[in-house]
């Protein structure tokens, strides 16, 4: 067992870990005003804490009306995608120390979806696009008695896109989606990919036809914003490219 | 107020709720009410796997699995239920595979399996590979697969609807379920759902602890709604503390890490589990490992300047194995601790993880009003329920199994009930209780703050009713909880609006946590023995003569309106296995 690096961290931590940070949050509440506005909050926080911890401190200690979604607090449920310092991230997976706490940290709702209140957006159009790509296994013929067999290599083929937590960080970072909400968006394509390349599935052609639509995969201009935004490290642009290639070669 | 009418209403869209929905939707007009978007449910956080004696990689059978479950639960398990769990496990896994779940595979292309704590071959001889898994994202894959199949079946969801009250109506001298009352987050509107059958699948209550693997939203709403209407809660003193939470944060690092060969070490680098569980070592059952960790810490062998944690050591495992089998948890260590698990051990401490107790049900998921009477039209499944297949301590991988087996069973049973029965008439002013609660909190000018009370509750629970308990500590908790419940009456919220008022809902959730914490502490105080997750230092032995029985806690309301917890007991169902001393 190597010598733990943690002891050093702990010593550093022992000498008062707290720093003062400014959160600059774009507030919006149509019950009060039709306009959004920036509001600053100052809090004391350990820089090893998450942006979500900062938002909680504000909500719990300073202003109970601050509204955002969250649940798991460790990057697994997809509730809290937001624009932090201009980039889409999960608040619960972003540590204060990693985003330059010397300057005010800006936090606003993700773009391209209607803001309902503060950091909460209307997720319905996002989930509708997901539902439209037939995101479920389709098989023909009789069910086998035991499990369907799948080789480890075939399983690996679509592993990356099974990791999606439907947080919308990718779709709401996509300039094509900002300009035209009809575009399916990267997350829907990722989830179509997850089935198109699953050796057990038999509806690849149908899904490809859906994505061949004018609002489908050809709208992608390969700007890579989605890949940069994905908190699960999914190679979103690559998945979209693979779907495009499958549409041309009809091989998958 | 809006009134809706459905044959079957399901409360919750985690694994149990969606598994039930897939069955119920095929057979009856079904609505699923969920306070979170379905894919946000905490089932998605489950990592390690789902148990089933598929025997894909080595000899195994359901009877061994039943035995391990009963022994793991320290003989408080209802053995008829455990047998169903273990038998139906095999189909439950195969169902999921057919729905599309991407399990890891063996070289033959079948579902791969790995070791997990407490699962053994032939009644404890040696660890067995029984956990079916998809890397360390098994829960994520289950949640996604079930949601995908709900989309396929056209399941109707009401997202961000908080169920806050259970409607019970007496008909011909029998208490029946008439429906539920829900609060819509987006608008603040109150909705009454009249339903022939209601299934609770609203998950656990872990948020009354501070260091916990549970989500912020796991506040026991379903348990509280039923309890307040006079229904019992079973075995609430039994809570599982998972050995390996990230130090101070509580984020879980799956037992699968030890299944893959990870080792727990104290500050001297010693593999201390060899002392406490010579056969199963690091893979002994969770209560045993958690106590061993705290024993090391108390005896001065903990790590760090404060000596308040131990290490999970994965450094001897090949990086390729970590990448393939444990990608998420190794990333958690990097993200949240800045530690590289290839080269450095990870600081861990036990974390509050799983509620063994809950709403009592029989094996069809029917809710019990007392030891034997069912409440017609009322069902529960998943972590909210107590069947009881987990007894005093749940085995790892048995909950993902539970939600699938009993989610399916309750979905089928509830839909059958709605086909065969009529609606029960709604009570007068069905939304009254919820409307009053919401009004009270919105208008209150009291000086108490939700965040303060919640933190005090969590700190009390961590300090007094966690891994080690005594008469003294539990009494301290009972008193503190009583004080907090009193202060809760003066709680106020800052957000007075209707739209997405999460401030208000956090206040309501805290009310639920306080009631359930009281039930837990009072139940724990009365259980003067040690069994599974409930360890009393003042009564360190299991006492089968006096306590081989389930606790049933009821809310009693006095003439002056004050309430208290009344305890009763229910016999354990024993079929094959007589209680033995538990050794690992
Ligand atoms: C980090 C972690 C790892 C785990 N790993 C494993 C594992 O490897 N193997 C295993 O077997 N078990 C594991 N478990 C345990 C297991 O995951 C859970 O017990 C199980 O997933 C619970 O499922 P559920 O459907 O009962 O509840 P949940 O998935 O928690 O779902 C609860 C649902 O109820 C809804 N809800 C709650 N309150 C309300 C309300 N008032 N109104 C409307 N809806 C409401 C929520 O929106 C949600 O949809 C793990 C648990 C944790 C926390
Ligand atoms: S692909 Fe990544 S960014 Fe997009 S929704 Fe899925 S997890 Fe979020
Ligand atoms: S709170 Fe679940 S992903 Fe951030």
What does it look like?
Chain A is an alpha+beta fold. Chain A has 2 domains: about 5-120, Beta-grasp domain (Ubiquitin-like (UB roll)); about 125-250, Fumarate Reductase Iron-sulfur Protein, Chain B, domain 2 (Orthogonal Bundle). Helices cover about 35% and strands about 15% of the residues of chain A. Chain A is built from 10 helices and 7 strands. Chain A has helices spanning about 5-15, 50-60, 125-130, 150-155, 160, 175-180, 185-195, 205-210, 225-230, 235-250; strands spanning about 20-25, 35-45, 80-85, 85-90, 105-110, 115, 120. Chain A has a 5-stranded mixed sheet, with helices on one face. A two-stranded antiparallel sheet of chain A has the order 6-7. In chain A, β6 (about 115) and β7 form a beta hairpin. In chain A, α3 (about 125-130) runs parallel beside α7, α7 (about 185-195) runs antiparallel to α8 (about 205-210) and α7 packs across α10. With about 575 residues, chain B is of the alpha/beta class. Chain B is about 35% helix and about 20% strand. Chain B has 16 helices and 20 strands. Chain B has helices at about 15-25, 60-70, 80-100, 140-155, 220-230, 255-260, 275, 285-300, 320-325, 325-335, 400-420, 430-445, 450-465, 470-490, 500-525, 545, and strands at about 1-10, 30-35, 50, 115-120, 125-130, 155-160, 160-170, 175-185, 190-200, 235, 240-245, 265, 310-315, 345-355, 360, 365-370, 375-380, 385, 550-555, 565-570. In chain B, strands 1, 2, 6, 7, 8, 9, 16 and 17 form an 8-stranded mixed sheet that branches. Chain B is globular. The termini of chain B are far apart. In chain B, about 65% of the residues are buried. At the A-B interface, α1 and α2 of A face α3, α4 and α10 of B. The structure holds flavin-adenine dinucleotide, iron/sulfur cluster and FE2/S2 (inorganic) cluster.
């Amino acid at each position: 067992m190597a010598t733990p690096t943690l002891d050093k961290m702990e010593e550093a931590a022992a000498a008062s870990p707290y720093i003062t940070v400014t959160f600059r949050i774009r507030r919006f509440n149509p019950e009060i005003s039709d306009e959004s506005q920036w509001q600053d909050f100052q809090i004391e926080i350990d820089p090893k804490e998450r942006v979500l911890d900062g938002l909680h401190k504000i909500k719990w200690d300073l202003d109970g009306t601050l509204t955002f979604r969250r649940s798991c607090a460790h990057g697994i449920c997809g509730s809290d995608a937001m624009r932090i310092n201009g980039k889409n991230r999960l608040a619960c997976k972003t540590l204060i120390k990693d985003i330059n706490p010397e300057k005010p940290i800006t936090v606003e709702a993700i773009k391209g979806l209607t803001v309902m209140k503060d950091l909460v957006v209307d997720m319905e159009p996002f989930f509708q696009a997901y539902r439209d790509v037939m995101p479920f296994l389709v098989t023909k013929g009789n069910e086998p008695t035991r499990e369907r067999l799948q080789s480890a290599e075939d399983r690996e083929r679509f592993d990356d896109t099974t990791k999606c937590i439907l947080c919308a960080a990718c779709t709401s970072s996509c300039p094509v989606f900002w300009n035209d909400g009809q575009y399916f968006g990267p997350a829907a394509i990722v989830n179509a990919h997850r089935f198109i390349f699953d050796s057990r599935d038999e509806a690849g052609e149908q899904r490809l036809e859906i994505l061949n639509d004018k609002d489908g995969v050809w709208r992608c201009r390969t700007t890579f914003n989605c890949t940069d935004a994905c908190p699960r490290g999914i190679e979103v642009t690559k998945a979209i490219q693979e779907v495009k290639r499958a549409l041309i070669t009809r091989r998958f | 107020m809006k009134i809706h009418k459905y044959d079957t209403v399901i409360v919750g869209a985690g694994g149990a709720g969606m598994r039930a929905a897939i069955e119920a939707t095929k057979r009856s007009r079904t609505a699923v009410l969920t306070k979170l978007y379905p894919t946000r449910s905490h089932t998605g956080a489950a990592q390690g796997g789902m148990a089933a004696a598929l025997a894909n990689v080595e000899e195994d059978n359901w009877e061994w699995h039943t035995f391990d479950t009963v022994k793991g639960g320290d003989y408080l398990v209802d053995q008829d239920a455990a047998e169903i769990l273990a038998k139906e496990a095999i189909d439950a896994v195969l169902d999921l595979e057919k729905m599309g779940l991407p399990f890891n595979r063996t070289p033959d292309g079948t579902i791969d399996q790995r070791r997990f704590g407490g699962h053994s071959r032939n009644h404890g001889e040696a660890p067995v590979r029984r956990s079916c898994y998809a890397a360390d994202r098994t829960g994520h894959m289950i949640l996604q697969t079930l949601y995908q199949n709900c989309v396929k079946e056209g399941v109707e969801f009401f997202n961000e609807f908080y169920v806050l009250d259970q409607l019970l109506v007496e008909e011909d001298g029998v208490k029946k379920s008439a429906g539920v009352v829900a609060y819509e987050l987006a608008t603040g509107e109150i909705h009454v759902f009249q339903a022939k059958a209601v299934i609770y699948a609203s998950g656990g209550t872990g948020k009354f602890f501070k260091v916990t693997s549970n989500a912020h939203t796991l506040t026991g709403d379903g348990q509280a709604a039923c309890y307040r209407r006079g229904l019992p809660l079973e075995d609430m003193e039994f809570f599982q503390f998972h050995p390996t939470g990230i130090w101070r944060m509580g984020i879980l690092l799956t037992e699968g890490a030890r299944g893959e060969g990870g080792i727990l070490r104290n500050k001297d680098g010693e593999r201390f589990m060899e002392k406490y569980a010579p056969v199963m070592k690091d893979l002994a059952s969770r209560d045993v490992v958690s106590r061993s960790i705290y024993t090391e810490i108390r005896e001065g062998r903990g790590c760090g300047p404060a000596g308040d944690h131990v290490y999970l050591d994965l450094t001897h495992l090949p990086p390729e194995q970590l990448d393939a089998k444990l990608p998420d948890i190794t990333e958690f260590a990097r993200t949240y601790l800045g530690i590289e698990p290839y080269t450095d051990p990870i600081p861990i401490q036990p974390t509050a993880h799983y509620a063994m107790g809950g709403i009592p049900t029989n094996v069809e998921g029917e809710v019990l009003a007392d030891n034997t009477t069912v409440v017609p039209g009322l069902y529960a499944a998943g972590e909210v329920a107590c069947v009881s297949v987990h007894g005093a301590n749940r085995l790892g991988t048995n909950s993902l199994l539970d939600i699938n087996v009993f989610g399916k069973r309750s979905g089928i049973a509830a839909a059958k009930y709605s086909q065969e029965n009529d609606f029960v008439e709604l009570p007068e002013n069905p939304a009254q209780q919820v409307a009053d609660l919401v009004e009270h909190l919105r208008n209150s000018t009291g000086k108490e703050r939700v965040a303060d009370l919640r933190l005090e509750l969590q700190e009390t629970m961590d300090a007094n009713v966690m891994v080690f308990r005594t008469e003294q500590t539990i009494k301290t908790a009972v008193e503190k909880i009583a004080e907090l419940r009193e202060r809760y009456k003066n709680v106020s919220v800052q957000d007075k609006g209707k739209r997405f008022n999460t401030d208000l809902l956090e206040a309501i959730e805290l009310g639920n946590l306080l009631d359930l914490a009281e039930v837990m502490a009072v139940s724990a105080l009365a259980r003067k023995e040690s069994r599974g997750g409930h360890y009393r230092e003042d009564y360190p032995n299991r006492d089968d003569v006096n306590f081989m029985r389930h606790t049933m806690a009821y809310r009693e309301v006095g003439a002056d309106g004050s309430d208290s917890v009344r305890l009763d007991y229910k016999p354990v169902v024993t079929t094959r296995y007589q209680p033995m001393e538990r050794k690992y």
